[in-house]
């Protein structure tokens, strides 16, 4: 009798069937081990030299697409946070009738909202899984608030704007670090983080020149003092850049259209090699609830059998 041919499982089926192996040792402890996954078909047969060339090309494309916009956004983040010091020099305290204590309170209150919102913001970003929408949206909001600061009439309005500004601006820097970690390996991330942080130094270098230009040419225009124009102009620039960011910043490698299929596969696979898991394209199976279910499902892995 002829032997019935068996169907050959696909790569995905083999991986799904062999991802996890549950073993029980002699002392009754159950453990779960991860079997080695195979690279995607598009990069599986690349030689080390070919992979290096492809990875270098892909990394350059990612750098050009991501880093200039992220650094520019951080420059504006820093400008909008610290422009109150320049506004003080051109009439902020005098027009609003602030005491020295009230001014210092207005400066410090921003960091209350900034500290309170950093962790919750990243948890929310992880939940929605759309940095291409979340980060520019936060930037639009803080740009509007920064511009609205130019319209305040008293200490109460100033301190309210500053608190809300810190609350919204807190989303950017930690969210940006989370975003970069979905694109770069641990070895690459240090340089990109330093490059991002250099935005604060660039901001400090040019903020004085920008302030001088605004205060010298805009004082008294439309009946507004220069410090009001300072907030309005810098807030408006922030909103314009944020709108551009909607069209430039991507989400994650797996959902990016401007990479080729081979580059997308490599971008995800090298992260999996580096940290043991790929990028997250949404809130689905990698949500906090899913993690809790896995911990409860394999609770026997952490407790010995009697």
UniProtKB/TrEMBL annotation:
Biased composition (Basic and acidic residues): 9-24
Signal peptide region: none
Keywords annotated in UniProt: Membrane, Transmembrane, Transmembrane helix, Transport
Major site of localization recorded for this protein: membrane
SUPFAM superfamilies xrefs: MFS general substrate transporter
Residue numbers spanned by region Disordered: 1-34
Mode of membrane association: Multi-pass membrane protein
Protein origin, superkingdom: Eukaryota
Entry-linked PROSITE patterns: MFS
Domain Major facilitator superfamily (MFS) profile: 66-306
PANTHER family noted in UniProt: AGL026WP, PERMEASE-RELATED
Listed name of the protein: Major facilitator superfamily (MFS) profile domain-containing protein
Organism, as annotated: Discina gigas
């Amino acid at each position: 009798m002829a032997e019935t041919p068996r169907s050959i499982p696909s790569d995905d089926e083999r991986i799904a069937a062999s991802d996890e192996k549950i073993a029980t040792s002699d002392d009754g402890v159950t453990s779960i081990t991860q079997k080695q996954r195979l690279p995607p078909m598009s990069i599986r047969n690349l030689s080390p030299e070919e992979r290096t060339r492809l990875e270098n090309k892909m990394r350059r494309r990612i750098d050009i697409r991501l880093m200039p916009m992220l650094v520019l956004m951080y420059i504006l983040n820093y400008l909008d946070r610290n422009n109150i010091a320049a506004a003080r020099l051109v009439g902020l305290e005098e027009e609003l009738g602030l005491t020295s204590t009230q001014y210092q309170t207005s400066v410090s209150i921003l960091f209350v909202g900034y500290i309170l919102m950093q962790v919750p913001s990243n948890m929310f970003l992880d939940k929605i899984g759309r940095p291409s929408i979340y980060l520019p949206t936060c930037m639009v909001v803080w740009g509007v608030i920064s511009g609205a600061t130019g319209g305040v009439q008293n200490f109460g309005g100033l301190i309210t704007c500053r608190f809300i500004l810190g609350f919204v601006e807190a989303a950017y820097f930690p969210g940006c670090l989370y975003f970069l970690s979905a694109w770069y390996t641990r070895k690459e991330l240090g340089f990109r983080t330093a490059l991002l942080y250099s935005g604060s130094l660039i901001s400090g270098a040019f903020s004085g020149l920008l302030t001088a230009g605004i205060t010298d040419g805009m004082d008294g225009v439309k009946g507004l003092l220069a410090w009001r124009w300072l907030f309005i102009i810098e807030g408006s620039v922030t909103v314009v850049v944020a709108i551009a960011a909607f069209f430039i910043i991507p989400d994650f490698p797996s959902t990016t259209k401007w990479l080729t299929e081979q580059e997308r596969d490599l971008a995800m696979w090298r992260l999996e090699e580096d940290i043991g898991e790929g990028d997250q394209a949404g809130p689905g199976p990698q949500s906090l609830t899913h993690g809790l279910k896995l911990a409860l499902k394999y609770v026997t892995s952490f407790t010995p059998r009697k």
